[in-house]
Write a structure and sequence with these properties.
With about 100 residues, the chain is of the alpha+beta class. It is about 50% helix and about 20% strand. The N terminus is likely disordered.
Length: about 100
């Protein structure tokens, strides 16, 4: 079993991890998620994401438009996604569930 895991490429591992993150869409070397939340939830989510992003030394893009929050993770300059960026997306999902109570 260990030999099988080692033979897999890093990209396969990241693709498998991304497949588990429902709602995230891959755009080249970035992933994005749009959330329908109110202003108070947006503020709470942004604070939680900032704590995790700082710990991982990453900078996601978070923007607000009407009742939607758009989050982008990744460099977007032909740098491949990293394990840390996929981990950040998973932690954002955790924060989203905590903020919305779902």
């Amino acid at each position: 079993m260990r030999a099988l895991f080692r033979s897999r490429t890093k990209r396969d591992y990241l693709s498998d991890a991304l497949a588990l993150l429902s709602g995230w869409i891959r755009e080249g070397e970035q992933i994005r998620r749009t959330l329908v939340i109110d202003d108070c939830q947006h503020a709470a989510l942004t604070e939680r994401v900032k704590v995790v992003a700082d710990a991982l030394h990453l900078r996601p893009e978070i923007s607000r438009s009407a009742d939607r929050t758009l989050i982008r993770v990744g460099h977007g300059d032909d740098e491949p996604l990293t394990e840390g960026e996929v981990l950040l997306a998973a932690r954002i999902e955790d924060a989203y569930r905590a903020v919305t109570g779902s």
